[in-house]
Design goal:
Length: 464
């Protein structure tokens, strides 16, 4: 198998993405020649490395061919992967649909016999993710680009989500102007709105596909000046934050950075928690300051910012040192008031802004949330500490604020105590946003990371 304009490379793609520096636009012929020259000069070996273009060639074949030709013209070697099932391919594929469905554990003939479009799309998505992951591991994928409607977007982004952070991923989709979380997930996928449906090469689609080709070629061919991997002398710490826990995380970050850590802060909006868990699983994170576990409340009660049932499990599973708290568990998130499900209409609410409505968690819900945190912490195989701020868990959960509820806090803390087993649990007589709490949380994480002596955390008042 060999496609037009293929090249030979020895690097895996996260480093290979670019072996060239360009001064003019990569669209200029002189620049493309310079780029190819430098790439060939710096690469060796026997494995072909390409951009992989995923499309259903029975319905998007001519558009895929146009996109592939533009990429090749820009000096970016590209393979077409056929993700179609029923109709005849309009153009030839470099990787056939037979190979795609085989990777999914089935056959093209079986999927055609079933004549079930939904099942075919699901199988193609599974096959695409497995095939691309396997080829990436073998050092043969420079990046992934896809085009399509709902089916093509499902298949293309499934393959993209199988790749690590930093590998170029671009999806040209008729759905890109709407809610795209289902397809992007926690990955760095670029979604490009097709504007018109992807059917034929016309004055609009030609512009959009050319735009996509130039963006993809640039990501693959231009040398990155940054690396995903943390500096070896700076432990990479992940922290979670919400607007109502911002003072805590800002102060803790200052302490951690002063001690020589690099801090990644994740907004606990569902996607943020998922992204953090994913990076922990990829082995990039040295320690976790999980101040804001509010996504657990949305998952339990049915809010819009859930990070799924696996939230608060990656660090424990991998043995990554972690300090856990209960930030913003006083609330469940919804959109504007008119979007709140009828079953919650009698609950206590606070209008955070015109687009976000917060609902106070009940005593019973807090008890269950505390139990979940204690149970997940107890299952950790690495150093784990739970910190409880006895005077409130968010900016609006304190004396005089709308969500102040001592009974709910008591139920939350008791749930943790009852389920945490031998996990170290420290109760601080302060509010989560007090500097004392933030400094103690950061110092405790530094202690279990081996960056501080245990005596250095004794300044904060706490009881076990």
């Amino acid at each position: 198998m060999r496609a037009s304009g293929d090249f030979r490379g020895r690097r895996t793609v996260d480093k290979l993405r670019v072996s060239m520096r360009f001064k003019p636009s990569i669209a200029s012929p002189a620049c493309r020649r310079e780029g190819r020259h430098r790439f060939y000069k710096r690469c060796s070996g026997y494995r072909a490395v390409h951009i992989h273009l995923l499309a259903t060639l029975d319905t998007k074949g001519h558009e895929a061919a146009f996109l592939r030709n533009r990429l090749v013209a820009l000096g970016a070697p590209t393979l077409i992967v056929d993700a179609g099932c029923q109709g005849e391919p309009a153009v030839s594929a470099d990787i056939s649909r037979d190979e795609l469905f085989t990777a999914a554990g089935t056959t093209l003939a079986e999927m055609q016999r079933r004549a079930d479009r939904g099942a075919a799309v699901a199988a193609a998505a599974l096959g695409a993710s497995r095939l691309i992951a396997r080829r990436f591991t073998a050092g043969r994928v420079a990046g992934v680009i896809g085009l399509g409607g709902s089916a093509g977007t499902t298949i293309g982004t499934a393959a993209m989500r199988a790749l690590p952070l930093g590998v170029p991923k671009l999806m040209i989709s008729t759905l890109a102007s709407g809610q795209v979380r289902a397809w992007v997930g926690d990955k760095d996928i670029l979604m490009l709105n097709s504007v018109v449906d992807i059917l034929g090469i016309n004055c609009i689609s030609r512009v959009v596909l050319d735009e996509a080709a130039r963006a993809m070629a640039g990501m693959v061919m231009l040398e990155s000046q940054v690396a995903v991997a943390p500096h070896e002398d700076k432990p990479l710490v992940a922290a979670t934050m919400f607007g109502v826990t911002t003072p805590c995380v800002m102060r803790a970050r200052e302490v951690l950075e002063a001690a020589g850590c690099e801090v990644l802060v994740f907004h606990a909006t569902g996607n943020g928690g998922q992204a953090m868990e994913s990076l922990i699983d990829e082995g990039l994170i040295a320690g976790v300051l999980d101040i804001t576990t509010t996504e657990l409340a949305d998952e339990l009660v049915g809010g819009i910012l859930s990070a799924g049932p696996d939230r608060l499990t990656a660090a424990g599973r991998r043995g990554v040192p972690q300090v856990i708290s209960v930030g913003a568990l006083d609330m469940v998130n919804f959109g504007p008031p008119e979007t709140i499900p009828a079953k919650f209409r009698e609950r206590q609410f606070h209008q955070h802004n015109p687009s976000v409505t917060l609902m106070r968690t009940t005593v019973a819900e807090n008890s269950r949330l505390g139990e979940e945190i204690g149970r997940k912490a107890a299952a950790s195989i690495g150093p784990t500490t739970i910190l409880l701020p006895l005077r409130g868990v968010s900016a609006i959960d304190r004396t005089g604020q709308p969500f102040d509820d001592p009974a709910a806090r008591t139920a939350l803390f008791e749930g943790v105590r009852q389920s945490c087993q031998a996990t170290e649990t420290i109760e601080l007589d302060c509010h989560i946003n007090d500097p004392e709490f933030a400094e103690h949380a950061a110092a405790k994480l530094l202690e279990i990371l081996g960056k501080l002596n245990p005596q250095q955390t004794s300044a904060a008042r706490y009881r076990r």
